[in-house]
Design a protein that fits this description.
- The strands form six sheets. Strands 4-3-7-6-5 form a five-stranded antiparallel sheet, with helices on both faces. Strands 9-8-12-11-10 form a five-stranded antiparallel sheet, sandwiched between helices. It has a five-stranded mixed sheet with strand order 14-16-17-19-18.
- The chain is an alpha+beta fold.
- The protein is built from 19 helices and 24 strands.
- It folds into five domains: 99 residues, 2-Layer Sandwich (Beta-Lactamase); 107 residues, Beta-Lactamase, CATH 3.30.450; 53 residues, Helix Hairpins, CATH 1.10.287; 150 residues, Heat Shock Protein 90; 117 residues, Rossmann fold.
């Protein structure tokens, strides 16, 4: 059966009306139309039914011919609104750029683009557009599928940011990175890796595990590969070792090598490994220097302790000789005292360093007369300097009234004393000049000597602990090398700076600054206090001490001071004596005693007699020990070895005697 199309028309032939028919076979045309209808239906179904955003765009005019419902949902305009728009209203490119891209899509065929499209609400989205030219109603148009890739772009940007941050961190840390293909031996190295060994990437290309083997110290390479092999066998999550690598200029560079196996082959063999190389040469040299200093320090400590101990024990033995004259006895006793003082100074220096490290040293600012302080220091050293045949001069830079400032007088005195002792130690002829001047908002103190001076290469080191200009065992001066380090720490704590100027063989000048904070002092009222003397009323004190030598020393020190003394050998005896002797005016309490310690004894005594002064006396000097003593109720704390003058002053303060 065929489809036909008939055209009929009345005509007159020889006076008769007839129907004139023209018949066309349209079977093929009908088949084509049906096929086209089905094709359009199929296209429309595909165009509308797919969830992807789709647009039909005329490349000549940029007009949006059609849009599916997904496009309407994505852009925010209705399908009808989109059909009345041009692609320029959506694309953020310039008209010229849009036209060029559409022309490229039409000429090349299927093309992928990355655009930024504008939505109805004004927001901008990153999109990928796949455009393909098709025939539509006899015209070539662009069939475009639009994918929103904004989230993916943001994720990619974040990944890039993290990558750049990581690379910047690696660069800032000056860490070399490497990646090793264990199977092929190939390696990927960053620029810092090459910088560590002094080469450019081009000089070592192509790089592989052999590059490392060629540069590594033979002994270290074997040890490192043994550690890596253990890591391959699963003995550790990562490996770490130190090795030496040959720098381009010939010296060895110490490397901290860290690595981790990331992937294995299907049959379990090591495949890909990542790691870092860090230059630790300075750290290794510093550690070696530290070890050297510790060895030198311990040798020095042994010398500094044994020398005065030899004097104490030796002259103590000589004092047993009954044939000694009184003059000889006095000489030996003085030498024993000097040796003991030398040991005490050493212990004090070590304790000061320990307290500074533990940040236990606190400023105790008081109104201080700098002029009086430097005069006292001058008087302290005058006799010793004169004995050595040297001169000592002191210069004050302000009037007495102007010299009164707010500072820590004890620490200022300690710094000046340290510097003058140091100058005295290294000066054999000439003398020492010290004092201060005012410079704007600070006071600059100075100590100038005519001694042996300091070599140029040692000036920066002498303020470091355990450092001395001469650390050898053949030097002709004593000391642990701590005084200048302590002085520097104390000066900086008080808000100043310290420096040294010196010429080897021609003396040294030490200077330090302190903030100038003048204080106005009103006229003083004559003090009504009086010194302890034989006319003072008699006192009774209790000495709680388990060490016989310390107890004897205290009793002999207080002999002649019009003081009655009771003794207890432990804390419990001390409590009993206080309970049965109401005449006791003050207790000297040791901490470490048998039966009951000094803390507990003090607590009980303070409950019995809250107003009875208790002075804790101990060889323990830490901040914690002092705090425990005060928590127990003690009124003051004195450190062994005890100086008589300091003890009497403390007793006078507590008893107003």
């Amino acid at each position: 059966m065929r489809d036909v199309e008939i055209f009929a028309k009345k005509i007159e032939i020889q006076g008769k009306e007839v129907i004139y028919d023209i018949v066309h076979d349209i079977t093929e045309r009908k088949q084509q139309e049906e096929a086209l209808r089905r094709s359009e239906k199929q296209f429309r179904s595909m165009f509308e039914g797919h969830s992807a955003v789709k647009l039909l765009v005329d490349p000549d005019t940029g007009k949006i011919i059609d849009a599916n419902s997904s496009a309407a949902d994505f852009y925010g305009w209705s399908v009808e609104e989109l059909r009345n728009m041009r692609i320029l209203q959506i694309n953020t490119l310039t008209p010229e750029e849009v036209k060029a891209e559409m022309e490229r899509a039409r000429l090349i065929g299927k093309t992928q683009f990355s655009f930024r499209h504008r939505k109805k609400d004004g927001s901008i989205r990153d999109v990928e557009v796949f455009s393909n030219p098709i025939e539509f109603e006899g015209k070539s148009i662009l069939y475009s599928i639009v994918h929103d890739v904004t989230e993916r772009k943001l994720a990619e940007a974040k990944v890039l940011e993290i990558k750049e941050h990581f690379e910047a961190t690696i660069d800032a840390a000056e860490i070399g990175t490497w990646e090793w293909n264990v199977e092929t031996g190939e390696a990927i190295l960053n620029n810092r890796w090459f910088e560590i060994v002094g080469y450019t990437p081009e000089e070592l290309a192509p790089v592989s595990i052999q590059t490392w083997a060629d540069l590594a110290h033979p002994d270290d390479f074997k040890e490192s590969m043994a550690i890596v092999e253990k890591h391959f066998n699963g003995d550790s999550e990562h490996y770490e070792c130190e090795c030496r690598m040959k720098h381009k200029d010939g010296h060895w560079v110490w490397i901290l090598d860290r690595g981790k196996l990331l992937t294995r082959t299907p049959d379990g063999k090591p495949l890909r490994m990542l790691g870092t190389h860090t230059d630790i040469t300075e750290r290794k040299l510093a550690a070696e220097e530290s070890d050297r200093l510790k060895i030198a320090f311990m040798a020095n400590m042994s010398h500094e302790i044994r020398t005065p101990m030899n004097g104490i024990l030796g002259f103590s033995e000589l004092l047993k000789d009954p044939q000694l004259s009184g003059e000889e006895q006095e000489e030996y006793i003085e030498l024993i005292h000097q040796s003991g003082q030398r040991m005490l100074n050493l212990i004090n220096d070590l304790m000061d360093i320990s307290k500074i490290d533990a940040k236990e040293v606190k400023l105790q600012k008081t109104e201080t007369s700098v002029n009086q302080l430097v005069r006292d220091v001058e008087a302290f050293f005058k006799l010793e300097v004169n004995k050595k045949g040297l001169h000592l001069s002191c210069t004050a830079g302000l009037s007495d009234e102007e010299s009164i400032i707010e500072t820590d007088s004890i620490k200022l005195n300690q710094v000046l004393t340290n510097l003058i002792q140091n100058a005295f130690k290294f000066t054999s002829k000439g003398g020492i000049d010290f004092g201060y001047t005012r410079k704007e908002k600070c006071l600059e103190f100075y100590v100038i000597d005519s001694g042996i001076g300091i070599p140029a290469g040692k000036k920066e080191k002498i303020f470091e602990r355990f450092h001395q200009a001469d650390n050898s065992l053949t030097r002709n001066h004593e000391g642990a090398g701590l005084g200048l380090s302590i002085s520097k720490a104390l000066v900086e704590m008080m808000g100043g700076k310290i420096r040294v100027e010196s010429v080897d063989g021609a003396g040294s000048t030490f200077c330090f600054t302190l903030p100038y904070s003048p204080v106005h002092i009103p006229e003083s009222v004559p003090s009504s206090s009086k010194e302890m003397n034989d006319e003072a009323p008699s006192l009774t004190i209790l000495i709680a001490e388990d060490d016989d030598l310390s107890s004897i020393l205290l009793k002999r020190s207080l002999k002649g001071e019009n003081i009655n003394i009771l003794c207890a050998e432990n804390g419990w005896e001390a409590v009993e004596l206080v309970e049965h002797h109401p005449e006791i005016n003050l207790v000297l309490m040791d901490i470490k005693m048998p039966v009951m310690n000094g803390y507990e004894a003090t607590r009980i005594i303070k409950k019995q007699r809250p107003d009875l002064p208790v002075i804790v006396q101990s060889a323990f000097t830490s901040k914690e020990e002092r705090e425990k003593a005060y928590e127990a109720g003690c009124d003051n704390f004195i450190t062994k070895p005890i100086k008589k003058s300091e003890l009497l002053e403390m007793m006078q303060s507590l008893l107003h005697w």
